[in-house]
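Is zinc ion placement plausible here? Inputs below.
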Amino acid sequence: MILNKHCCEDMAYHVDFECDVHSNPFDCPDKLVIYDKEENDYALIIHDGGTATISICYCPWRGTVLKGSSHKNADLQR
Ligand SMILES: [Zn+2]
Ligand SMILES: [Zn+2]
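Reply from A.M.:
I modeled the complex. Tokens:
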């Protein structure tokens, strides 16, 4: 795993986290952050049983500005 792909190791851990039980990240309560490679966009999963996410522009752990994160995709992605 290349740590500098993401802002910090906490982010890298959560982005790369894969659950053995839940194949769908939206079903897994342990999966917090989802990363869209194409958009270079980080989002928090809203665990309300659906597939809602909230895009984030700052690292929740370190407060680092997430490079490439764009405000244009701030709406909910499905
Ligand atoms: Zn970070
Ligand atoms: Zn799980």
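Short version: The pocket of zinc ion (ligand 1) is lined by residues 7-8, 10-11, 59, 61-62, 64 (CB under 6 Å).
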